[in-house]
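Entry:
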Amino acid sequence: MHKIKETLVVAFALFSLFFGAGNLILPPLLGFKSGELWWLVALGFCISAVLIPIMGILAHAKLQGTIFDFGKKVSTNFSLIYATIVYIISISLPSPRTASVTHEMAIQPFFNSSSLLTSVVYFVLVLIFVLNRSKILGIIGKILTPVIVLVLFTIIGICFFSNDFVFDNVLFESPFTDGILEGYQTFDAIGSVVVGGVILVSIDLRRKGISYEDKKKLVMQSGWLAGLGLFIIYSGLIITGALMFSEFAEDVSRTELLKGLSLKTLGNTGNMFLSVLVSLACFTTAVGIVTGAADFVKSRFRNSQKVYNITAMIGCLLGVIMGQFDVHYIIAIALPALMFIYPITIILILLNILPNKYATSKVFRVVVITTIIFSVPDFLNSVGLEGITQPVQSYIPLSKYSMGWVLPAFLAFIITAALNPQSHQPQ
């Protein structure tokens, strides 16, 4: 019974650390634009926003290290550069975005206060939680997440049972791949390599002397439970958006749609419920990101607690500064970074969950380098340099869907693994 309770606490904590600003505001608009093909969009979205992130947690269960361990087989220098880039992106974009969303949806409708005040109060609270990180699992897993899940299921359930299953036309050109790419904006694949380490350290603090196998089993079971919860919530929010197509203007924004859904399903109390939901979901994600960044820098400086505290303060200060920007602006400027770092992150996650005989250092190096090369055209397109890449992209399969790296990376893995003698040896 004790083990079941602990698994549920860790699963709730994982869910809550994943489920932040983007996870709330992205799915409803996806459903709103997907019409009768909502299920295809949901499938694509859940591949990049659920399956890959949970695989990242499974990789953490196997490695039981930090984000630095994900790229060590390429080289230690690569791993250090990769981890540094991920943490810079994390504390510069998704973490401040949580404060921005909280202000626009949970503070601005009720109080005539500035976004600066919201960001300052918000990240002071984040800092308090980060500096008391041994309490993260208990507080997040036992208290905050159940409230989030309850409010979400209420919104989804009311909409699901009070609407006829009639859908509008599809507004996406490529529903499946559009769903995958929108899943990038959740940052969850990146989040998995960040918060996975946070969970492992928090487990160690709660259960002194836990064995490798027991920790691996606990993290894997919790990961699958958290993934199931995310899948149900995302699918529910997407179909909710699809069912409410006639209630909103075609150019409705992400935040306006979410607020509208809450008002139409929960009535006049909708905004209050949504305010609580947004605040909790965003806050837990910010805590996870800042804690992960502080853990990483601490590990590079002989586990200095002073370095941990300073990094946490810098992360929160940066959150205050970047949190002044509009939500949609933050989403827009995040795209180029995601188009480059997300494919590398996905490949590292997939390679790390494979048996070691198939994922040797040589395989890691060849596949990662191939992924980086074929991600460059998508990155250049995202910053408006399509003219440079068009002649090349016409020869790359799936490049028109911004996924030109997928087939080259797969072929690089197959060829390198086939030519690698170690991959043919029994384990």
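Residues 212-243 form the longest helix (32 residues).
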